């Protein structure tokens, strides 16, 4: 076989490979949908509790069509945004401070390690006691849960700054505030971005949880109402909607990360 | 002129196991001189350099730059580290890397840009300003680090094994580049290396250190003619003689013995 033929063959193999790579997720999703369609219809499970996928999606489409889904989505996203925003406002400065001062790091370590694993849901009674059952409680819970990942990632990101990078800046007489801004923060940014991405998911979970348990307006409350009124298909439709939102937010975060960290080895394309 | 007087550095002083890295070290580097520091590995070369650079407080003794005691990083001094991939900032372009330390110099915007372009050209990277360091080869990255140090316009340049992580050919090119830049910019260079050939080839004087706790074992004059040439200089019997001399001086066992006294 000539070299050109070989190369052509390799080319075909690569393009087949990349086509498979691209279609595999779609195949996975299609399989799942078909499974959820066939299993209820075949009578293997009770269709009253697990309606066929088409019914779930139809009820979701109905909500989208008549516009009734947008307001709860907006309310859930409001809880997510305020919770995540507040968590960042608290965790970033605290994380930078704790990460920069070794004594503060040692002093706060056990407190953080103790508070972090406290499930936010366990604080629901406290939230009700402090803020009632309104939006404040939802935000409190989302903030509490979303603060820890960002805080910890910021602390470790700041502590992990390369000493050579730091010494270089010091040897050139760069002032401490400028070192923080131009060396410490960019170098901690990959950690912080990961923390924010985790916290984004956590804030969404807690927003929906607060709506479910406390009856705050939002998707969680709608899911509960659908269940109580026996609209099982709608309930599933709304659950799918929360999933889609979580997925969309994750894509958004990943895109943001890619932009901010275009220089980082994990994001570089076509090096050299 | 750089003067190091009776420098001593003990790590972990007051702890149960203090480590004496540098015992007693005095050395003087005259203006425009090229002095190399060689020694067996673990001879406190980097410790010495960090103390001289004002990055690490010494236990006792003093460092003077133009009769001024060094207590923090001096404005007249620039440092080039071995590990360019860690010392250049990947989130800044090449020109931003060079501009980063220049705020202290309070030049105008246009003058800064011109200075950056000039220094980049002088290290042979006139076109690389808008690139990111990680888009360049290792040797080119170290050239950027050298350009950054030059743009800072120091009187003295400290280099900590700057060519230890590039290939042999690049290394020879960079050695000649540094010699050339020294002449052009009229700077003093204190050069730490573990490579004896490199030390002899580059220097006016070679300071040989003992193993830790470090002292000066010997200071060797290098009367080889300048400008030096990778082929011609290195084929001279005088060069071979000097490198053998320095080699033996490093390996000589009595240094270890006297050091432990």
Give the gist of this structure.
Chain B: It comes from Phytoactinopolyspora halotolerans. The complex is a heterodimer of chains A (272) and B (261). With 272 residues, chain A is mainly α.
Question: Can you describe what's shown?
Answer:
- Chain A contains ten helices and no strands.
- Chain A has 272 residues and is mostly helical.
- The longest helix of chain A is centred in the first third of the chain and has 39 residues, at 3-41.
- Chain A starts with a helix and ends in a 12-residue tail after the last helix.
- With 261 residues, chain B is of the alpha/beta class.
- Chain B is built from ten helices and ten strands.
- In chain B, α7 (196-202) crosses α9.
- Mean pLDDT of chain B is 91; it is low at 257-261.
- The A-B interface holds A 162, 164-165, 167-174, 178, 182-183, 186-187, 189, 263-265, 268, 271-272 and B 50, 53-55, 72-73, 75, 77-79, 81, 83, 86-87, 89-92, 100-101, 103-104, 132, 134-137, 152.
- Chain B: Residues 2-236 form the ABC transporter domain.
- Chain B: This is ABC transporter ATP-binding protein.
- Chain B: Keywords: ATP-binding, Nucleotide-binding, Transport.
- Chain B: It comes from Phytoactinopolyspora halotolerans.
């Amino acid at each position: 076989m000539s070299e050109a033929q070989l190369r052509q063959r390799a080319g075909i193999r690569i393009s087949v490979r990349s086509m498979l790579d691209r279609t595999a997720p779609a195949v996975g999703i299609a399989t799942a949908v078909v499974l959820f369609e066939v299993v209820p219809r075949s009578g293997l499970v009770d269709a009253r509790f697990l309606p066929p996928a088409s019914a779930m999606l139809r009820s979701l489409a109905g909500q989208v069509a008549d516009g009734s889904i947008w307001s709860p989505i907006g309310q859930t996203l409001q809880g997510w945004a305020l919770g995540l925003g507040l968590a960042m406002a608290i965790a970033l400065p605290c994380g930078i401070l704790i990460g920069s001062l070794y004594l503060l790091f040692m002093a706060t370590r056990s407190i953080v390690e103790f508070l972090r694993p406290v499930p936010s849901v366990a604080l629901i009674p406290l939230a009700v006691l402090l803020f009632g059952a309104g939006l404040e409680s939802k935000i409190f819970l989302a903030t509490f849960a979303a603060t820890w990942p960002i805080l910890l990632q910021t602390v470790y990101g700041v502590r992990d700054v390369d000493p050579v990078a730091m010494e270089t800046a010091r040897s050139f007489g760069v002032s401490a505030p400028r070192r923080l801004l131009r060396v410490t923060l960019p170098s901690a940014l990959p950690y912080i971005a990961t923390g924010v991405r985790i916290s984004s998911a956590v804030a969404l979970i807690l927003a929906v949880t607060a709506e479910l348990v406390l009856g705050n307006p939002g998707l969680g409350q709608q899911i509960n109402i659908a269940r109580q009124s026996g609209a099982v298909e709608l309930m599933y439709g709304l659950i799918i909607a929360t999933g889609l939102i979580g997925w969309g937010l994750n894509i958004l975060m990943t895109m943001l990360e890619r932009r901010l960290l275009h220089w980082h080895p994990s994001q570089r394309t076509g090096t050299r | 002129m750089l003067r190091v007087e009776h420098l001593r550095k003990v790590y972990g002083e007051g702890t149960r196991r203090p480590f004496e890295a540098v015992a007693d070290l005095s050395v003087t580097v005259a203006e425009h001189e090229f002095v190399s520091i060689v020694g067996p590995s673990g001879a406190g070369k980097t410790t010495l350099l960090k103390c001289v650079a004002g990055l690490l407080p010494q236990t006792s003794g003093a460092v003077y730059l133009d009769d001024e005691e060094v207590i923090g990083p001096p404005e007249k001094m620039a440092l080039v580290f071995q590990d360019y991939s860690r010392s250049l900032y990947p989130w800044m372009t090449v020109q931003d890397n060079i501009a980063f330390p220049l705020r202290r110099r309070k030049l105008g915007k246009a003058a800064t840009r011109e200075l950056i372009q000039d220094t980049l050209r002088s290290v042979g990277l006139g076109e690389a300003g808008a690139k990111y360091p990680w888009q360049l080869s290792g040797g080119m990255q170290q050239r950027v680090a050298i350009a950054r140090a030059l743009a800072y316009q120091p009187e003295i340049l400290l280099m900590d094994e700057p060519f230890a992580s590039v290939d042999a050919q690049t290394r020879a090119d960079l050695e000649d580049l540094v010699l050339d830049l020294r002449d052009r910019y009229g700077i003093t260079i204190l050069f730490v290396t573990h490579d004896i050939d490199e030390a002899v080839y580059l220097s006016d004087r070679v300071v040989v250190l003992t193993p830790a706790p470090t002292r000066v074992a010997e200071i060797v004059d290098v009367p080889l003619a300048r400008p030096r040439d990778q082929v011609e200089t290195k084929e001279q019997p005088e060069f071979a003689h000097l490198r053998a001399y320095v080699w033996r001086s490093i390996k000589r066992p009595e240094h270890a013995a006297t050091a432990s006294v």
